[in-house]
Amino acid sequence: MLVSSNAAERSLRMLICVWGKCDEGKAYLAEKSSQWEPVSTHEEARILLGSWVVVSTWDKTTTGEAKGSHYRFIVSAEEWILRSFYELCLLGGSDDEQTLTTLRELLAAVTAPKSSVHGDDLIKGVKMCFEVHRSPKSSELAQRTAQAVLTQLLHATVQRAEMSRADILAEQRKANTSTSGNAGGEASRRSNSVSSSGEELSEEERNKQQDEWIESQVDQWLDEAVAKVDPSAPNERGEAPKKFGFCIVCRKPAPHYCLETKDPVCSKTCEEINLQRRKVVDEPLPGESPAADADAASELPEGDDEVDVEKRSELYQEDALRVFSTLCTISLYGTLEAPEDADQQVDPSSTTDPLAVKTKRLSLDMVLCVINGSGSVLKRKPAFIEEIKSRLMFSILRNCVSPVPKIFTLALQVFVAVATNPDLKMHISTQIGVFVEEVFKRILDSGNSSFQHKHRVLQVFYKLCTDATTSLDLFKEYDCSVTEGNVFEGSIATLAKIAQGGIQKSGAGDLQPEQEAKLRMLALESLVTLTGSMVELSNRQAAEQSSGGREKSTEESSDGKGNDPTTASCSAGESDSGGGSPRNSTITANGSARSSAIVAKARKSELEAGVRKFNVKPKRGVEYFVARGFCENDPTDVARLLKRTRGLDKTAFGDYLGEDEPFNLQVMYSLVDSHDFHGMDLVSALREFLEDFRLPGESQKIDRMMEKFAEHYCKQNPDIYANADCAYILSFSLIMLNTDLHSSQVKNKMSLDDFKRNNRGINDGADVPSAHLEFLYNEIKNKPFSLDEDEDLKLKLASQQRSAMQPSRRFELFIKETESIVEKSREMLSRKPEDMGGVQDPQEYLGPMFEVMWGSILGTLSQLMNSEEESVEVVEWCVEGLKHSVKLCARFEMDTERECFVAMLAKYTGLMRSPFEAPASAKNIMCIKALLSLANSETDGGDVVLGHSWKHVLLMASQIDRLALLASRAKSDYVYFANPSGASEPQRHARPSMMGVMFATHSSSSSTAPHLATQWVGTGVSVMMKQPEEPSEAEINASKEVVEGHPEIVPATDAIFQRSTKLSNGEIIVFVEELCNLSSAELAVVDNPRVFCLQKLVEVADVNMSNRIRLVWSRIWRVLSAHFAQVAQSKNQQLSMYAIDSLRQLALKFLQKDELSNYHFQVEFLRPFEAVMGSSESSREVKELILSIMESFVASDVTRSNMKSGWKSVFHVLLLAATSGGDKTVVEMGMRIVTTLRESYFDT
């Protein structure tokens, strides 16, 4: 309650001034407002706070919005009181009720239409929320309220910054229109009240009622303030309050309230008195016309609106930028004010301070809100982007290596929000690479980082992998640049190592098995997700290019260029050779573009080869660089290349520079001259010089280097030493001091006095100032000359020692690591990156990207799939990764790699076991379904192109069919195709390996027909197919579990052959070739043949015969006819006759089609009959079957009428029958067919 008389007077005068009823109040405000200063005491701040609350409350309850001069006063008061309360927060003197009220009013002031809280006042409001939230004196409710108010404040600020000019103008006009309507109604109401009351009340009575209303309002506000502290507090007469407190008129307990004014009243009489008083108070002042003011506001010229909107838009954006900059600064330093030295290095251990942690946590959370809430206006504003690059990235760098989980978690979330935002990531691709290479990988490789830290970093990798464009930018900017490291390749290797279980641990071995499993799982998910996003991006780009190609083709056709028959013929030929697949068309469209990416990566590979040569023998490495054009045969150019090239062995570099050869010396001189030592002390200059290489062990080499260094240093700093000799001696002395102080082999360390004594009289006969020598000594003592890799190695070795088992020691080592990380990364972030341009065509780099990563992925998936201890979830991710990898290999024509991935899937189907007695595992079923999915997606017109890897899918299909027969207890094929000739089976020695099964008879189709029945074809397929004994119950049960337990497998297998019509023209040829090869392997076992593939060949030929153009079909038939002719000449007569009958079925369907003149498709189709008929290995029964088929063709009206070029083959078969030798039955049968033709169908 406001008990001070001065405070009461000030509050009342402010109220009177706001109401605008008292000229004295206006004068008081005009006189005092310019003299108000920020408060210095708690009591005065509380008084002013109470005044502000009263003003704000009146503004809401009376008018609902500020108008005219009243609003201008409130704005002035708000700004002043905001500054006062901010300082009060710094003093920690506000109570909880005042704090909550002020926070609410702050939010109302900032979010109000046409708010005047901008610039410094807005920043003070933000900092005020921080002070309330982090103050230990604030209650939990106040802290939560401060965070909520700050969130809403930022949301309002960002949303205003995103408003377009049209939105601001529309909102302003709407507000003016609303004000006009409200003011008009208010004016009408007021004029009525004046006319009804002015005639009855005198001026004296009116003033009296105004004073009474003011007094009653003040009493009511005081009652409300007291009730918040003590709801049962009595009034001045000792009466207890009722439901609604005390009556606003008579101060008695109030059981009612007025519906119109919401004021508490005790009776109807008091309600009428209160309403009459309000009518008098609402009476307008002389000369004041709210309606006229509103009309004037709504009739502003449009040009004035545009100017106001332009300024307001700039003001809103400037507010958002300043708030964002403030939040970044707070998150970097953990304080509300930045230190005076902007480059001040923050001690990482200071992040454990509770106040700083709380401040950083809230600031990072608010930064995340701004980034997620901002739209295109802010994110495309150069100042906003520069703020992210210059300030936010340093804040993330500092906080993401914090040992506090809450801090590094939020920092990494902010990084992900920026790095995955399409509008922002294109501007910070270089910074992303620095974080990945220098921060995230080092945390993962560190044995001192905690499980939570590693887990959060892996989550960042997972988020980055969800969008292939982010990885693509890294690959282009780093892996394809000869001046940068292989960031993308290194990241993939790190993820693969973790997924395989190669997690860096400390000597304590603190990672629990379940924690290690989580890290491995997350790394695996990241790799698989990346391959999936690459597939998605590749498909999307291919679809866009395909649609663009169709549009271009349509345009050319409309110009009359698409109707050239020559062009059409060429297109058909390309499609016939396999160019019809989406993959091939994509690559053809991008051939020149892709070559640039491949050339860039190849250039990088050449540089890496030169680095390896240099590390073995520097002279040959330099010769290689010159020969390959990386530098000229010039010392300056060589020095420039060696200084900037990554991966060079620092020891080899130092030895090369120290050689006493003219060219080597010139290179060393050029390297020294490339440094700028202006204004640097000797230790700093020497430290910078020695960062490039490791000093050689020979003193003569060191002497030559120090001599040139001293000359260059004195040339750029002539006023420090008398001559270069002094700098030379002192430099050499500093190197010796460094060895003496920091070598574990030196027992007696050099003291400062010894150092001074050793360097007496070296400055042209005089002594170097003692203070300067002391400075140099302390610099070397506190920080030795050391290469970064040496320090990293020391920390790594230290983390493996037994002392690292203690948490305090691990924390100390991690702090040292973070210092190194921050220092190196800060330097790299400060460099201005080269503008390499964005990736215009992702297809240009996706292929080379996958060439870099496929080996790591294959090794990871192979190791995990080979383990029997992995969970089903891990196997699911592995199978998914194999599927994505097969698709990428197919897209970019990586045949060898595709074969590896498909073979791995086929291996883990488990179908190659013989006998098949063990139940199929979940891994086996998943691999079976994955292969079927790949095969059917291609036959559905998808993007997968299996090529010669079809052999694995077809072998699996054959095995599934065999399991189906076992499950149904049906008879095997050998029962029906037993060899009657009794041909002996060759002796088997050992069952072949699984790889032998996979690559059984890739070229068996080339074997000659006479040897098919007797030779042993293949090294594994035949053994696998051989089932001489009756299947065991275990085999039958295992087969049922696969076939009946997963009923979708058999239909999906059959669908492969039915949907072969959807394969591209080039792919169907490969499909048929592989099916023929597998069929040869199945039929090679003389006493146990399988005809599954032979049946499927007939099926495939049947469905493709009518769906392929004749040119494509002729190529398919060349493969099929050769295989059928080979099988028809088998020693197994049943197989031979089965093959001939299959040919008959296909020929009968083909001959039902009409043939155009001058074509010879029928001859090609019937040629297998000629080959079998003319073979000496064909039996009499086979020849008779062929002649009966020819006779049926001749006898059929349909085939005879369509026969054109096929007559040549028919008569050739008959000729072969007539010349068959001593086989009288065949000769007579052929003669009968000729006689029938002559007598029945030809006129003589």
Automatic annotation (TrEMBL):
Task: Write down the Pfam families for this protein, in alphabetical order.
Answer: DCB (PF16213), Sec7 (PF01369), Sec7-like_HDS (PF09324), Sec7-like_HUS (PF12783)
Bias (Low complexity): 190-199
A GO-annotated cellular component:
membrane
Top-level taxon: Eukaryota
UniProt-annotated stretches for the region Disordered:
172-212, 281-306, 539-594
Which keywords annotate this record? Cytoplasm, Membrane, Protein transport, Transport
Q: Where is the composition biased (Polar residues)?
A: 539-548, 564-574, 582-594
Q: Does the keyword Transport apply?
A: yes
Which ranges carry the SEC7 domain?
596-783
Citing just one GO molecular function, the answer is: guanyl-nucleotide exchange factor activity
Question: Could you tell me the Gene Ontology terms of the biological process aspect for this record?
Answer: protein transport; regulation of ARF protein signal transduction
| Location relative to the cell | Cytoplasm; Membrane
Q: SMART domains annotated for this entry?
A: Sec7 (SM00222)
Biased-composition ranges for Basic and acidic residues? 549-562
* PANTHER family attached to this UniProt entry: GUANYL-NUCLEOTIDE EXCHANGE FACTOR, LD29171P
**Protein name, entry field:** Brefeldin A-inhibited guanine nucleotide-exchange protein 1
Organism the protein comes from: Perkinsus olseni
What's the name of its gene? ARFGEF1_8
